[in-house]
Specification:
The protein is of the alpha+beta class and 806 residues long. Helix content is 38%, strand content 19%. The relative contact order is 0.11.
């Protein structure tokens, strides 16, 4: 008997697949329906971890299954290869980021290939190559041209250690997510994408994403954060300046007892310069710059503020109220100003109590307006609209919608990112580069110190440029783009990766998009997915493509845990894929991560579970090896015995369940479990003296086809063992036999006084009377009811007979 040797089988089939270009996307047959299967591409850190194995194994099963179902499958792979780790390596080890990155890509590519994944490597991309970032720059210029990119001065999250700007999402509990340094605020000119332009569309279209998890859709809705209310303008007393606030409670405007500005608000400095409040305000603002947004807005943090010597005038009643600054108001949220109504806002009430400020109730417990002049006695809901109408008539405000979503800050003071293709000319100002000058290449003559401005500023060859407009000397932009920019359109480049004229061809992406199944970690549920949606909507509005959503279906897989916690080097609980592969083979590793838990849940690592999957694959191999001669021979079913019919029922029932599990709900674990049960039944069946060779052949071929997407190397090996030509993945997914699922007999339960006392096999078309008779004639049941009075007999067709005695 042959022995299962994965370390021999797996390299052999990987070489065969590569030689035969087994997974190259077929673009020639337009009659096949398309299917775009995509897993989120990795950062090339150099080492695969079990999270990678799980993510890519899930996607690979989907891609293989859909190919066998007759789809033309696109299943690409590439690298999210810009990013800070490469720059840190340059600083620490003196190795250029490009060299470090490309070496890691080469290592990880080989590791991925050992997993037997069905990627079309002809479509491989890396976001840090000039061939890719040339088009990232072109996209930026298109965004700039259409008003979706702009530059403004604003307070940003600044990591003093990394000396770079951080997006809000890169600040974790007040610290830099990379180095854990405390993040402060810094006033800088930065580039932004106008994500808010599509705020309403991004929100409304979430409801069209039927194939997304509800939790992810809820997270996106909350991030966009739509609220309806009014903008109201308050004049500053003794000044020609005014302050506009957004409020969701215009019905409380008569209760405003003070106004609060964010300490960083543009007007604050102007209002206190030269006054007795200037020094104290400067000190307070400096303190605020050491606090994170989370700290400042937390309900657990004490509210702090100070009066800045000015008053504003309530437009509805002419009342003057004090103007304050406070820690709980943020400059870039809303208008950076809040009308404070302590009678009807818990946060304002806490602040007013601390600083002994007036509290004016304007709505009573019955939701009726009070202290609100002509609105007194009106229902507050009605007054909501009435007050808006009044401020609109006065020209002091309007009904409006506000969003929590803010524009995307994309400037980074780093080297290893896509250069922003603009120059600064003394005569022409900010000038976009010409398309024909792209790509603006990253220079090699830079110094990596880890401190100071962007490393690009150290390169004279880069910084010294010519103005594309007037031809005079100019200075290049030294910032690079946030790496989220690269990953917001990569799925479109996969479709047309060899295009040298444009980022992607419109017809090509219209044909393949949207992605039919997107797979990745839930940690990307907000930013990456939201930015990708924004890019597609911007592209659509610029006429580059005809659809508005990038991902039709989304699966967010759980983490791989060990001892209840996420695997990490610091915790010493990492299981390296290479170790498992060397000992048990790739197919075992794949089977375990697919079987141990549903894909959307966290997976607890188990050495025993891995060993169990290895034993199962050995059982499959032995079964096929033992029966391969029978499976090679053509045979007819002929007259079937009871045992033949039972075996065929199990074969078709298993195939039906696996097909439904893979089609509808990513039930990989239940599909594998059903396959295990089928193997058990086949082992029993093969021991029968009167087994049917045609049933054996049907069972073996079904087992191989079902197993193949999960354990592709073994699938191919077993396919050749039964003398089949070509790849198992070129066959059509088998169809189960409906007639085999119709049973001649059914098992019923026999109860006495409601307790199960036996089981009987009866004809499926048996009548109630016949069921009662069969049950009463059973020797075991006869003994149980002997000498007792039968009160009644209840028969439920195909299920049970209950005999009631006393």
């Amino acid at each position: 008997m042959n022995v299962y040797k994965p370390n021999e089988i797996e390299p052999k089939w990987q070489k065969t697949w590569e030689k035969n270009e087994q997974y190259k996307t077929d673009t020639s047959d337009a009659t096949k329906p398309k299917y775009y299967a995509l897993e989120m591409f990795p950062y090339p850190s150099g080492k695969l971890h079990m999270g990678h194995v799980r993510n890519y194994s899930i996607g690979d099963v989907v891609a293989r299954f859909k190919k066998m179902q007759g789809y033309n499958v696109l299943h690409p792979m590439g690298w999210d290869s810009f990013g800070l780790p490469a720059e840190n390596a340059a600083i620490k080890h003196g190795i250029h980021p490009d060299k470090w990155t490309m070496e890691n890509i080469a290592d990880m590519r080989e590791q991925l290939k050992t997993l037997g994944l069905s990627f079309d490597w002809d479509r491989e991309i890396a976001t840090s190559t000039p061939e890719y970032y040339k088009f990232t720059q072109e996209i930026f210029l298109k965004m700039l041209e259409h008003g979706f990119a702009y530059k403004k001065k604003s307070f940003v999250n600044w990591c003093p250690s990394c000396e770079t700007v951080l997006a809000n999402e890169q600040v974790v509990q007040g610290a830099c997510e990379r180095c854990d340094s405390v993040v402060v605020k810094k006033d800088l000119e930065q580039w932004y994408f106008k994500t808010t332009h599509f705020a309403e569309e991004l929100l409304q279209d979430i409801d069209t994403l039927d194939g997304w998890p509800e939790k992810v859709k809820t997270m996106q809705k909350n991030w966009i954060g739509k609220s309806t209310g009014a903008e109201i303008t308050f004049d500053i007393d003794g000044s020609d300046k005014s302050i506009t606030v957004f409020t969701t409670r215009p019905d409380t405007t008569y209760g405003v007892s003070y106004m609060v500005l964010a300490p960083e608000h543009r007007l604050v400095k102007e209002l206190v310069d030269g006054t007795e409040y200037e020094e104290a305000v400067d000190t307070f603002v400096a303190k605020m710059h050491t606090m994170t947004e989370i700290e400042r807005t937390s309900s657990e943090v004490e509210k702090e503020g100070m009066f800045i010597g000015k008053h504003v005038i309530n437009p509805l009643n002419g009342k003057k109220v004090e103007l304050w600054i406070a820690n709980y108001v943020l400059a870039d949220y809303g208008t950076g100003a809040v009308m404070a109504v302590p009678a009807h806002d818990e946060r304002d009430a806490e602040f007013a109590t601390k600083y002994n400020l007036e509290v004016v109730p304007v709505i009573n417990e019955d939701n009726i307006m009070i202290n609100s002049e002509e609105f007194d006695g009106m229902d507050a809901d009605k007054a909501f609209e009435g007050i808006i109408e009044k401020i609109e008539e006065m020209g002091r405000g309007k009904k409006t919608v506000n969003y929590r979503l803010r524009d995307w800050l994309l400037s980074r003071q780093r080297y290893w990112g896509c250069p922003i293709p603009v120059v600064y000319c003394e005569e022409c100002g900010i000038v976009p580069e010409k398309k024909e000058n792209l790509p603006i290449l990253l220079p090699t003559d830079v110094e990596f110190t880890g401190k100071g401005e962007s490393p690009l500023t150290t390169s004279k060859t880069f910084m010294n440029a010519t103005c594309p407009c007037c031809g005079k000397s100019a200075r290049r932009e030294a910032d690079t783009m946030d790496t989220f920019v690269d990953s917001s359109w990569y799925f479109l480049r996969y479709i047309d990766p060899k295009n040298t004229e444009e980022p992607f061809g419109k017809d090509a992406v219209n044909n393949w998009m949207p992605v039919d199944q997107y797979i990745g970690g839930v940690e990307h549920a907000i930013l990456h997915l939201l930015y990708s949606r924004f890019f597609v909507k911007a592209f659509n509005s610029m006429g580059m493509l005809d659809f508005k959503e990038p991902f039709k279906n989304l699966l967010t897989q759980g983490m791989v845990l060990k001892d209840g916690t996420k695997m990490s080097k610091s915790k010493g609980n990492v299981v390296a894929p290479v170790e498992i592969i060397e000992e048990f083979g790739v197919d075992t590793a794949r089977l375990f991560v697919l079987f141990a838990a549903p894909p959307e849940r966290d997976l607890e690592w188990s050495d025993q579970g891995v060993e169990g999957c290895f034993r199962f694959l050995n059982r499959v191999y032995r079964l096929v090896d033992e029966l391969s001669d029978l499976a090679k021979v053509e045979a007819t079913l002929g007259d079937l015995t009871k045992e033949d019919k039972a075996m065929r029922y199990t074969i078709s029932a298993t195939l039906k369940k696996v097909t439904e599990d893979l089609n509808e709900k990513f039930g990989f674990n239940t599909a594998i479990s059903a396959l295990m049960e089928l193997i058990n039944e086949m082992y029993k069946y093969k021991e029968l003296d009167n087994r049917n060779n045609a049933v054996i052949k049907e069972g073996i071929e079904t087992i191989i086809a079902i197993l193949a997407p999960f354990a592709p190397h073994m699938g191919e090996e077993l396919w050749t063992m039964v003398d089949k030509e070509g790849s198992v993945f070129d066959i059509s997914w088998p169809k189960y036999d409906e007639t085999a699922l119709v049973k001649d007999e059914v098992e019923i339960v026999v109860q006495v006084n409601g307790k199960v006392r036996g089981k009987l096999s009866v004809a499926t078309n048996i009548t109630k009377d016949e069921m009662e008779k069969v049950a009463m004639e059973d020797e075991k049941i006869k003994a149980l009811v002997e000498g007792k009075t039968i009160v009644k007999v209840v028969a439920v067709p195909k299920k049970l007979v209950n005999i009631v005695v006393k």
